[in-house]
Specification:
Order of helices and strands: HHHHHHHH
Largest sheet: none
Number of helices: 8
Shape: globular
Radius of gyration: 17 Å
Strand content: under 5%
Mean pLDDT: 86
Distance between the termini: 27 Å
Length: 180
């Protein structure tokens, strides 16, 4: 992500890069490879929740790292509209396959609310992975499973780290917009 993000980007390009990063499957595959196939852990559930967490973490982290309120509003709207469009495609295919209504975007919004609610439990810490990992494991149906907690925490932290780098490299967009 960092190699191709250098230079000046339009808001549309930045939004597209964030969308593509959020739906990329490589981190998900990597994290799943650390969970033994012989374990009693439901890999399908973990994979599904990792995808949701990645989308949410991207949306949360760029809002956290971008200081310019105007840029944050515009980018957030474009990102979440793109996620909704992406979700509608998944929902259409899934609904046709399982022959019942399926709303992927609604699931993303519910998970976002769940994770944001967990931030209230941070008490004396500023490390969101302390609450994200355990909540992730619970959502996967594996409360207390160290490897599942680790996978959720690791996904969230990886996204935060990558978005922080990406936003700092795309700073010219922020400056360009602020001058308009």
């Amino acid at each position: 992500m960092t190699d191709e993000s250098k230079g000046t980007l339009t808001i549309e390009e930045l939004s597209d890069k964030l969308l593509n990063f959020s739906i990329d499957r490589e981190d998900v595959k990597d994290l799943l490879s650390h969970i033994s196939q012989d374990s009693k852990i439901n890999h399908t559930s973990v994979e599904y929740e990792l995808h949701l967490l990645r989308i949410i973490a991207v949306g949360w982290s760029f809002n956290y790292y971008i200081q310019d309120f105007h840029l944050k509003q515009i980018l957030s709207k474009k990102y979440w509209n793109s996620i909704q469009e992406f979700s509608n495609n998944i929902s259409s295919v899934s609904s046709a396959t399982i022959d019942e209504t399926f709303n992927y975007f609604q699931i993303i919004k519910q998970r976002m609310d769940t994770y944001l609610g967990e931030f209230k439990n941070l008490k004396n810490s500023t490390d969101p992975t302390e609450v994200i990992g355990p909540k992730f494991a619970q959502l996967c149906g594996h409360s207390g499973e160290a490897i599942v907690i680790w996978a959720g925490s690791r996904m969230f932290q990886n996204v935060l780290n990558n978005i922080k780098i990406f936003i700092s490299e795309a700073q010219l967009v922020n400056e360009k917009l602020s001058n308009n």
